[in-house]
Amino acid sequence: MAVEIVQLEHVPSSYRIHLALFRNVKNAGFLHQQLLARNADFEYAFIDASTIVSRVHLLSAVFKAVNSSVNGTLRTPNVHSEIVVSLSSSSNIADAYRRFGVSPSTSDLFVVKVTFPSSATPEPPSADSISQHLTDNVEGDAVPATDETIRTITDVRTVRKSYKLNGLAWLDAIKDELLKRQEIERLILGGMALRGV
Amino acid sequence: MTATAAEAAAPHDFPLPKILTNPASTPPTLITQGAEGRLYKTTYLLPDIPCALKYRPPKPWRHPVLDQRLTKHRILSEARILSKCRRDGLRVPDVYALDEAAGWLMLEWVQGTPVRVNINQRLGSRTEGIEDDEELKDLMRRIGAAVGKMHSIGVIHGDLTTSNMMLKPPAQQQQTTDGATGLEGEIVIIDLGLASGGVHDEDRAVDLYVLERAFGSTHPRAECIFGEVLDAYRQSYKQAGVTLKKLEDVRMRGRKRSMLG
Does B209 map to a domain? Predict the structure, then answer.
């Protein structure tokens, strides 16, 4: 199965979070187009995986978006677009889509699908049907979303630019790459938490 | 909120903030209750990431609009200062998440104990030889360096005490390794709820004065080595000397500049 179900702390039990990672994606342009066309069958958060440094990084954005959804304080049309925007440390929505969302040149893709019962869909789609739909529509290799894999995908230079983490002498001075990445993750979480406030 | 309140809190009767009523792997525990809010230990995202949740409940005695504004302002101001400190390389808790409208702030759970505890354990019932305790003096110097770093990036803590600093033990250290003094580790400054940006020597000097007085009353027997804190502070940034000069003035007249308030 392509998707993994993720259980997050302090998320209402009616919410289900599905996560998938695809590598060597061939049809990112098509997926991008479905979002622009607001195709209701493609209600996913499609994230360019090169912008992600770790699972915790991505899951933080999911947690924020779900929390906004629960509180009814979404800033964007739905919880999926909200996940993409939650990744950003700025409050510019278009900029967030451009930086973190899928683009025609994306080759490694994170897909997040959040389901919960609503008046329109009292019975949300099952993990199997989500998995099937993704397998049918994403041309790429589904791989487990481990931190080890994510590390090989991250474009650290772009990430540091997106989160304005350049010019921090103490950060550059860290020799241990793993430790440095951990510090970058920590700074990103702070930036995301304070986005637009 | 000050961490000096009873650390072992009684079973809580307070209603939990809404976010903590959602399912989690372990139930949240109330760590301390301050005048403004409550501190819970809980988890962030995954069962193996402990976090601290600072919750400022609505104050029924305030006008609701004012209450909301004050709460938002205080949560955001603390989060912004923590984030700034972290970016500038000062070790403070990481900001994980916040909801200023709901009144909570989720922070990294810092392992270890407040420096106050480490100092008191080290002192035990000793009354002699404290001024020659090199390990303890080294801890004092690390405190001075941390405070100096904080001041050098333009942050005033507002409530510096040995309870508002954690000593985070080195990651690999076992509990009972030979030669461990219980004083190793990194100083992490916590509870910046009263912190502000400030670049005046006056503000920095008052910050040091508050620490000096708090130290004297919390650890009267170790007062003789407090000078180590100030010595390390002096080395930690360029303007430190001016601040220390100002500290002498503040000592003469006390914390308040004017006679009012």
Answer: yes
Task: Residue B51: give the domain boundaries.
Answer: 18-108
B96 in reach of chain A (CB within 8 A)? yes
B203 and B233 in a single domain? The answer is yes
Confidence check: pLDDT of B11 > 60: no
Tell whether B144 is covered by a domain: yes
Q: What CATH number should be reported for the domain holding residue B78?
A: 3.30.200.20
d(CA B96, CA A71): 18
Query: Using CB atoms, which residue from A56, A169, A197 is nearest to B45?
Result: A56
Q: Which residue has the tokens 């993990």?
A: A127
Q: Using the 8-state DSSP alphabet, how is residue A101 labeled?
A: B
**ipTM of the predicted structure?**
0.95
Same domain, B124 and B240: yes
Indicate which of A6, A10, A166, A182 best probes the interface with B, i.e. most B CBs within 10 Å of its own CB: A10
Q: Hey, are the CB atoms on A189 and B87 less than 8 Å from each other?
A: no
For residue B68, being part of any structural domain is answered with yes
pLDDT > 50? residue B8? no
Q: Find the residue in B nearest to A86 (Cα).
A: B97
Q: Is residue B138 part of a domain?
A: yes
State pTM to two decimals. Answer: 0.93
Q: Are residues B140 and B196 in the same domain?
A: yes
What does the DSSP 8-state code read for residue B238?
A: T
Contact B46 A73 (CB under 8 A): no
Question: Which single residue is written with the structure tokens 């002096």?
Answer: B234
Decide if A64 contacts B97 (C-beta within 8 A).
yes
B159 is catalytic: yes
In chain A, the residue whose alpha carbon lies closest to the alpha carbon of B21 is A10
pLDDT of residue A78 exceeding 70: yes
Summary mean pLDDT of chain B: 91
Nearest to B183 by CA among B197, B173, B192, B194: B173
Residue contact A67–B19, C-beta within 8 A = yes
List pLDDT tens digits, range B184-228: 999 999 999 999 998 899 999 999 999 999 999 999 999 999 999
Q: Which residue has the higher pLDDT, B11 or B48?
A: B48
What is the count of structural domains for chain B?
Answer: 2
What pLDDT, on a 0 to 100 scale, did the predictor assign at position B2? 46
Spatial CA neighbour of B192 closest among B165, B230, B213: B165
Length of chain A: 197
Nearest CA in chain A to B76: A197
Residues A191/A163, Cβ–Cβ less than 8 Å: yes
B246 and B143 within one domain: yes
The Cα of A116 is separated from the nearest Cα of chain B by a number of Å equal to 15
How many interface pairs between A and B have CB atoms less than 8 angstroms apart? 83
B87 and B121 co-located in one domain: no
B160 and B224, same structural domain? Answer: yes
Domains of chain A listed by start with CATH number: 4-193 (3.30.2380.10)
